Each structure stands twice: as C-alpha cells, then as structure tokens.
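Input (Anthranilate synthase component I family protein):
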Amino acid sequence: MKVRVDDLQEFKRKALQWASLFDVFCCLDSNDFHDQYSKFDFLLAVGVENELIVNNGAAFPALEEFRKQHSGWITGLLTYDLKNEIEDLSSSNIDGLQFPELYFFAPKHLILVKNEEVEIIAAETQQVIDEIALQKPGQANTEEEISLNTRFSHNEYVETVKKIKEHINRGDIYVTNFCQEFYAENAEISPLDIFIKLNSISPNPLSAFFKLKNKYVLSASPERFLAKREGKLISQPIKGTAKRYNNAVDDELSKQRLRGHPKEQQENVMIVDLVRNDLTKSAIQGTVRTEELFGIYSFAQVHQMISTVICEKRHDISDVEAIKNTFPMGSMTGAPKVSAMRLMEHYERSRRGVYSGAIGYFNPDGDFDFSVVIRTLLYNAAAKYLSFQVGSAITFHADAEQEYEECLLKAQAILEALGLHGSFPLP
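Output:
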C-alpha cells in the first residue's frame, strides 16, 4: 500500500521509534545518495515472520534453503567468521559481542521509501500507519559516559605493523587489512539515539541499524560488498582514504592527493584484481570487467577511492553461491586472500564477528544488495559490551604512523556520536 507522507524525515524517525519496540528489525538507509544500483532510499523490515540462526557450520547451505522457502523480502547479516566455513581457517580471538555467525529473517512488516514515496507491506497496513503516527520521538540522549579501551597501544600497533611488513618482504602476502578493536565494558547506551546521531554526523549511502534482540549494529558504511541487478553482479571495493577539510581549497587538495597517490592506487588495484578473480567463480566467461577504477567519492568525514567491478552471473550459480564465492570481501582481507586472513587471525587481538561481514537483503525480484560492515558500532546490551573496529591496508610502502592516524580518522564519526571526540589517541 502506498501512503502519502507530509514530512518524510519525521516519518522515518517515528518509524524507527516504532520499530525499536520489536525484538528484531533491520533499517537500511541510503541517506539520499543516489546511484544507479540503489533500489530504494530507505528500508525498514520489522518483526519476525520466520528466521534463520546459524552459530557455526553449514551456514551457506542453510541460507540457500531459507531463501528457497521465502521468495519475498528477507534481510540479515553474515559475519566475517563465516570464512572458517569457506576455507580451512579458525577464529580464537576475544569475542565480547557473541553475535550468531549468520542471521536472516522474513519480516512481518516492511516499509520502503523511494523518491519520497512510502510503501508499506503488512497484513494490517492501517494499524502500522496508526502505530507509527502515535510515536513521539524525544530529544536524543547521547551523553552516556563511556570509558573506552583498546586492544593495542599506539606503540604495540606500530610494532605489529612492522612484523606484518616482514611477511610482505618475504612474499607471504602482498597486502592485508589489519584491524584493531576499541571497546567498553559495563557500557549502557541508547542504541536508537546513538544511531540517529551517527547517521547525522556521517550520513553514508549504505547505513544500517540492525536490532537482534539484545544485540545491535549501528553502521555508517560507505561500501557496497556485492549486489545483483537483473543478472549482473556488482562489487565496489574501497581502498584509499583521505581527510575532509572545512576549507574548500584544502579539501580539494586532499582529494587530488588521494586521486594521484601511488600507495593508495596500489592498494586499490590489488584488491580490484582480487575481486575480479572472486567474481570469475560466478561469472559468464569473459564478462568480468572493471567499470570504474580509482573513482573518488566524497562523504561527510572522508574522501574515498572506490572502484566498481561487474560481471554477468552464470545461470547455474545461485545468488547464495555468488555471495559465498566472493566472501569475505577482498577489501577487508588482502591478497593472497587465505594467507592474509590466516595472518590477521594471528596478529589481531579480537574476533571480527559482524565487523568485516555484510548486512543486506534479498528481494522478490531476485535482486540483492549487501554492504561491508565498516565504520560500525556494535553493542551487546545484555553483556553491556560496546565495540568498534577500524583497519587499514598494510603494503610494502605502508607507514605505521600514518596507518594508525588513518584508523583514528575512520573512527572519528563513531567517537563523536559517543561524545568521545578529542579523547584520542589512547596510550
């Protein structure tokens, strides 16, 4: 049912307030970024008609069967640790969040916004409209005191980067994504209020707010992992980050430096090659191509170097198989992929879990779209454990100090949303 809304932003706020009353919901918000691959501007899937929870093993076959049973909309998340199912790998690092390795659900209610037109798909549409209208979103309370810790001191991070570069010098890997966790224990926050603030500070095109009972994902992701549009697969890896400046001249200089920076281009092209290789497993022969190389895109916090790789999907490859064939995304692993993932399990000190995984949907048209879970705050309300991770690409030419600064730059919006901006670096 299509409904008329006078104030779309107010409707979205009230709809989120209403959704937060349910045990499970998924919100995907493009924040008015319009690209040729976006199917909608805002999606809100609320309540569970049916769900799939996989804690370890056989996640992709289970998702394949779940998708066959539900031809309508389903939304969900895949954690980075599914790599252990795909490859001969394991994860034994600290996990304070305890998300399931895979979770998908068929929603009871679905709200879609496209070109300011609102569509509600529900058994009792008028009841949903009335319940949303009754919501009274209050003033966001984001002043909770958070005591943030890190798994690496600055010096430990620098020394670890040096050790990783020794592997690169030996030829064990060419590039990797080295990640570090910032976390708080005994943390009490209002996830909805924090998400609203984060989404205001950093309104990115693949933002997501996911509630799974007492676990929350608050994501300001700018990166598309994999989408399917009318038989075409699209991946848009990000490698290359530069700071934004208030001064227009300085901002343009930062953008141009990123565009021509040899290290950033090297990182990007290595991951593009990896993504191209991953896509060949699902592609009609000869159709894999780089649609855009080294594209520079500007967001509220940073400039990013983004490339777009596409192919025509083989008819004998299912959508779930296509996702599995490219998972985890090359921008978060490195190359060679398996060697880089194995090394990072050794050098990182936290289990990535949802971070470096994917959030998205399958729709009734046979299309799907999944983001890369980066620039994301994760929260387990029952354990009162709050976490976010940031990473950067380590190559032969990487400077450890600059990579550490890049990590802090990527954390900037989350720190600001938590009221912690300016409290870094940690010792």
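Residues 42 and 113 are 5 Å apart (CA to CA).
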